[in-house]
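Table S2 (text version). Query chain:
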Amino acid sequence: MQPIKTLMLFSAALLMIMFLPSCDKENNTNNNPTIPDAIFNASVSGAESYTFSFTLPKGTAGSYAVNGSCNSTVGLFTMLAKQMPTGWAISLSSSGNQVKVGTYTMNTVNGAISSFANASQTTAYTSTSGSITITKAVLYQNVGPAADWYVDGSFSTTMVDNSNPPNQITVTGDFTGINIKAQ
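Corresponding structure-token output:
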């Protein structure tokens, strides 16, 4: 009788181990379901000069908005920060087919054109060089083919006014808690 009890206990323990959810500590899943505040800071210098800084509680847009996407099919990572409804806008794009920590070059491959425009001016700039660095990437939720990530990092890019090529600006900044929709 004793061997049967031991075998049953062993089998029950084995079944519990097999069917309980696993704890994958490598996937950067957010164990805290709180949506972070989105913080965005940017400085524009050169032919034009501006400083932008805002915080969106729990990422909720108001006078400003910031979010992004990562499309694995076309290999494109983008982030857009803007003053609502028709103020300045900074679009950051790079090649990338997944959301993960690293430095990504801004270029024109796969339509990855970064830009800056200010509605109060008649100029618009496009990137000639630069990079986006992601220092933290946390998976918030994964629903079907799409996933919600929150990223922290920084960026630096040189841009030129295509209508007036001598005009050049440098745009640098950092971000925290920016929602990226990945597919």
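Notes on Table S2: The first strand starts at residue 38 and ends at 46. The radius of gyration is 22 Å.
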